[in-house]
Amino acid sequence: MAAAPAAAPTRAAVSSSSSGVTFCSGTSRPSLRAAAASASAPGWRRRGPAVSVAASSGQSAPGDIDPKVDILLDSVKWDSKGLAVAIAQNVDTGAILMQGFANKEALAKTISTRKATFFSRSRSSLWTKGETSMNFINVHDIFLDCDRDSIIYLGKPDGPTCHTGAETCYYTSVFDALQGSKPSEERQVMTTLYSLEDTISRRQKETVTEGKPSWTKKLLLDKQLLCSKISEEAGELNQTLLDNEDKSRTASEMADLLYHTLVLLRVKGVNMEDVHEVLRKRFSQSGIEEKASRNKS
């Protein structure tokens, strides 16, 4: 089962201290106040002290920007036209959804609204993805690259991102094209795990006509066999710890377990994105709190 190249989230060069997030020095930009005046969203960093777009000082006039946000905006290396490349990436799948451009006002608005906002070069105005289609990209975090001249909006899309109706704008494979294949909107830029999930999904749709069904198809059709294999693989994974086996053996057994559990998810109609959403909701609570919430429900 071949896997497509991974599109892993990029890490940002942002330093933190006990007093909050710190950035390079810069000057404030009063012209950005309008873009962030309605700020009420939590801080743009998921972990650590929040950096609110609204000024934290009780003496600040309405419409002021938190100085930390203002400094951040000044630290970005905008080009001669005041723009930087802005890439939207799916927080769960790692898929690159789209690429556009942002200026200071667009980044300020994204921080304040948590909706991916860009600058349209053709219209010379800001635009928020989804303002027409309602397929917003809900931003969970924002990353800058090491040179601070490009931006990643890491978020969850409400629906298809591309105007064609495709999940992402990146569905044209260069190597497929070189082999004569036409672009397909169903083609996805997938990380390894999602490529495996897609393969299992395609096996489920296959009709067995001649010959023996694939192993995946057998598991999909036989719940008892599938459950027994999951129990077996989980036991073998545990044994690598009890027997102090090497790392490669543990990785191999984990791969077996992941594969079989993904087959079970397909049988149940559960996607990995559903699992990731549950995990994200647990980031901010302890294991004890999470278990207590299960008991209540």
From TrEMBL:
Reactions catalysed according to its record: 1-(5-phospho-beta-D-ribosyl)-ATP + H2O = 1-(5-phospho-beta-D-ribosyl)-5'-AMP + diphosphate + H(+); 1-(5-phospho-beta-D-ribosyl)-5'-AMP + H2O = 1-(5-phospho-beta-D-ribosyl)-5-[(5-phospho-beta-D-ribosylamino)methylideneamino]imidazole-4-carboxamide
User: Pathway, per UniProt?
Assistant: Amino-acid biosynthesis; L-histidine biosynthesis; L-histidine from 5-phospho-alpha-D-ribose 1-diphosphate: step 3/9; Amino-acid biosynthesis; L-histidine biosynthesis; L-histidine from 5-phospho-alpha-D-ribose 1-diphosphate: step 2/9
Q: Which GO MF terms does the UniProt record name?
A: ATP binding; phosphoribosyl-AMP cyclohydrolase activity; phosphoribosyl-ATP diphosphatase activity
Matching CDD domains = NTP-PPase_HisIE_like
Set out the biological process GO terms recorded for this chain's protein: L-histidine biosynthetic process
TM segment ranges: none
- Domain (Phosphoribosyl-AMP cyclohydrolase) spans 98-171
Which key words are in the record? Amino-acid biosynthesis, ATP-binding, Histidine biosynthesis, Hydrolase, Multifunctional enzyme, Nucleotide-binding
Tell me one Pfam family matched here. PRA-PH
Q: Which family does it belong to?
A: In the C-terminal section; belongs to the PRA-PH family.
The family database entries (HAMAP family) matched by this protein are listed as: HisIE
**What's the protein name?**
Phosphoribosyl-AMP cyclohydrolase domain-containing protein
Q: Can you name the source organism? A: Urochloa decumbens
